[in-house]
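INFO batch 0412 | record 1 of 1 | parsing
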Amino acid sequence: MYVLYSSEGLLGDADDIDNIITSVKDLEVTPERIRKILPKVNWDLIASMYVGGHTGAECESRYMFFNL
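INFO prediction complete | emitting tokens
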């Protein structure tokens, strides 16, 4: 059994990943849903994982400028 973790702790059993994907695959991603999620985004984590040389604040600023 594998366990998935996030920066906020335990997410669940990796064996349940198919159930998780099924539960969100038909989810409509609307601007309203995105606006609700944005305050919960850990921009520092995203920057450290995907964008070398940029801070979380820079990533957030770029996303907001180009997408909203």
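INFO post-check: The helical segments are 17-24, 31-37, 43-50, 56-67.
INFO record closed
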